[in-house]
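Lecture notes, unit on binding sites. The following record was shown on slide 14. It pairs a sequence with glycine.
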Amino acid sequence: MHARTTSDGSDGSDVLVLGGGVIGLVTAWRAAQRGLDTAVVDPAPGGGAARVAAGMLAAVTELHYGEQTLLALNLASARRYPDFTTELEEASGQDLGYRACGTLAVALDADDRAHLRELHALQQRSGLESEWLSGRECRRLEPMLAPGVRGGLRVDGDHQVDPRRLAGALVTACERAGVRFHRDRADRLTVAGDRARGAVLADGTELTADQVVLAAGSHSGRLAGVPTAVLPPVRPVKGQVLRLSVPRPYAPFLSRTVRAVVRGSHVYLVPRENGELVVGATSEELGWDTTVTAGGVYELLRDAHELVPGLTELPLTETRAGLRPGSPDNAPLLGPTALPGLHLATGHHRNGILLTPITGDVMAHALTTGELPEEARPFTPRRFGILEEQPV
Ligand code: GLY
């Protein structure tokens, strides 16, 4: 596929995706597969929140009250993961680290257990599969768990993928599908007449496209040039994450994702097949701050140690903070906006990795038909109301 030259001499494409994180990349890959000439703007494609994320595919264990609509999308995406993984591994020649290992959510004290009982009841009302286990049954499954574990929920359908591998594979799959990369920052959206026309990059390059997809994660809400009425209401939600490593030869440490709410804070431990153990995550509303703090690391290690005491013997190999793109209802904003030519694919908050497969499919459908598929209609950006009433 080749870029077209438009009447003003600039580089034009069918689709210009602003943001090369997993959401932008999967959108570009799927669009290119549908025959659309596609370009991505990002200074470091494959970066962003996926460099930090643990990669839990936790539709069931991360269920929250009031998020039933989002649950349907999360489950639909989780169901696509095995085929998506096979297809992307074939397209890229890379292993995604997808692991159908299941998850165990445990409780350490009476309050935690009450919280978990509530979650179990909500899961049952929602028709989801999870099994209540005693503390002893939890330890039989995961012998490294603390003796004080009071009970838990076994969720065999919540798996994991390695987000860094996912992002790397998507970059390669995009390249192989003919997607062009502009390794620069988008400075502003351009609007001509009544429609989005492209973007100006930090180095002054002007790009034009028939359709523009704003997929810049938490930065999507602050791109210059986007009319206020269609500016997505996303905000950064900081997450600090640690990486430890289980030395070779890997002693059995954890066989599945283990998570808990300890004194009101969520902690999870995600064991990879290569010995990496990811411990996450804080959730902090601190604007654009991505500092790794002593307090954040301390709290994560303290809570993880209460769950799995042997963890303090492991080398601590990495500490990082990333920004989740939070939206007012914790659900993504997908598809066309009230500004013709401008689509959104952002606001995935805690579920960006989980929602990657379905986001690619939904966005490709929207870009080729102008409509959202049925399953994604609740996630139209227009649900936030102001978007249709105000002129753009
Ligand atoms: N879904 C995990 C997190 O957002 O920390």
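Take-home: The longest helix spans residues 68-92.
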